[in-house]
Amino acid sequence: MLRTHTCGELRLDHVNQEVTLAGWVQRVRNKGGLIWVDLRDRYGMTQLIFEEDSSEKALLEKAAELGREFVVQTTGKVIERSAKNDKIPTGSIEIKVTTLEVLNAAKVPPFKIEDETDGGEELRMKYRYLDLRRNVIREKLQLRHKMMQETRKYMDAQDFIEVETPVLIKSTPEGARDFVVPSRTNAGEFYALPQSPQTFKQLLMVSGFDRYFQIVKCFRDEDLRADRQPEFTQIDCEMSFVTQEDILNTFEGLTKHLFSQVKGVELEEVKRMTYADAMKYYGNDKPDLRFDMKFVELNELAQGKGFSIFDGAELVVGICAKGAAEYTRKQLDALTEWVKRPQIGAKGMIYAKYNADGTIKSSVDKFYSADDLQDWADAFGASQGDLMLILSGDADKVRKQLSELRLKMGEELGLRDRTIFKPLWVMDFPLLEWDEETSRFHAMHHPFTSPKKEDMALLDTDPGAVRANAYDLVINGVEIGGGSIRIHDRATQQLMFKHLGFTEEEAQKQFGFLMEAFEYGAPPHGGIAFGFDRLCAIFGGSDSIRDYIAFPKNNSGRDVMIDSPSSIADEQLKELSIQLAIKK
Ligand code: ASP
Fold first, then answer.
1. First and final CA of the chain: distance in angstroms?
2. Distance between alpha carbon 250 and the CA centroid of its chain, in Å?
3. pLDDT tens, position by position, 314-327
4. What is the reported pTM?
5. Which tens digits make up the pLDDT trace of 26-79?
6. Are 63 and 96 in contact (CB under 8 A)?
7. Which of 201, 218, 236, 429 has most ligand 1 atoms within 8 Å of CB, for mutation?
8. Are 12-104 and 291-413 in the same CATH fold?
9. Which atom of ligand 1 is nearest to the CA of 172?
10. Into which CATH architecture does domain 291-413 fall?
11. Secondary-structure class of domain 12-104 per CATH
12. Domain coordinates of the chain in residue numbers?
């Protein structure tokens, strides 16, 4: 080793020892005859001292020439510092240097390699290897590492076998576009990158693997957002001979294990809610349960009193923000403007304040008596000091709008505390989802999800009402994982494809291999996949998954550091039998 210790290791106990350290120069403070250098590595920072009286002149000159991020090796004696720094673990000692060797000089970095940096996102991504030197980023990747290790520990202890599945495959329909890879040796044909290993893990169940998991890269060609990347990581799992209950318990176990081992948090019981209730009470299939503010429907109380906007609405629904009656006119106007923005799309917002003196003041006093408003307050369970906010319109739309308003109020009132974790299983998702654009049903989860037996009869009469054996794990309003009990017989799988608008030939061409496998003794099975990057971000208390990925892509799916995607040489295109339809 080029060092005897790391830069985070030395303490008063080491005083008088001769040590050799290697690392990066964080900072040089030159006071003429006295130079201090902060030397940094992954483990911490150690102060080096060069003094004119004791150090050789040449050594002092060498130290004076050091620049930020130079890589050096140094030997010296550990001494006690006269002015101690209790902010860093090595703050009681420093190294009185006897030799200094520059292992590699460095250009001035394009941004400060410090917790608070002056580098913008794009610049930091271009020089991501420098960004990764910053403690705050490195700690996030260390968290990720710990999460991976603990996941493997738990899964192994539960008898799961980690099996790798191929990356060059054929499309796995998870609702997004595939990334495709041209095949040189099979001209005109393409592989697809897996959106998930879904069909492979099911095949492993047919093979008798019984309990499979994999920490695996998945690829989806979707529009990007803060919590999406074109390539992302899943903890992918599948089990045989299980009921839904077994799966929920096993993965509630994994979630609790991770929280306790990685964060030291003993998670409470994971609550359960049906999809129907989630939509009815939170307008959202991933409700944030860190705060209450449940939806209250007011059709009966608010309609028929001459207020035409409510009278003409399919749904009148509101939330009660506890203790927010103090909101000023200006704040309420700002909220109204906020819900009217095109991203939210509400036509307007009605409020009713339950004042401290017991009176209720609303923006529609003209239409409602004090008794009417008291009835509203009772329906909301509102008391003095509370603020009721009400939206109305088309039921589906208004639920979405109110869901956004609920989250905003939660934010404004400080109810979305990042140190509190409220996990929830959302269950009984619809099997199918109507897609306006293509005018047909899509699988809400994926086509391999089994319908609830008792709803099978509805498949022909009211397909939208069929519920699936499907579940999502939600934490603090973020979908962390999802899965289902699968179909495991050919006939049902075929029926499912039929309802999804596949002809028999299409189904056979795309998924014949799976349906055939089902004819060779497929056990009942089911599984789940966790979005690993999101899970890390939740653990780290952050909204963006990018910080938890060593080399992420930007908002347009580009890696600005290696400059990808990029064009390829004509020669390469020719080899792949590809002709571009655009001019380069
Ligand atoms: N393959 C599914 C997904 O990626 C998860 C599952 O059903 O196990 O969402």
1. 50
2. 21
3. 999 999 999 999 99
4. 0.94
5. 999 999 889 999 999 999 999 999 998 776 889 999 999 999 999 999 999 999
6. no
7. 236
8. no
9. 1
10. 2-Layer Sandwich (3.30)
11. mainly beta
12. 12-104, 291-413
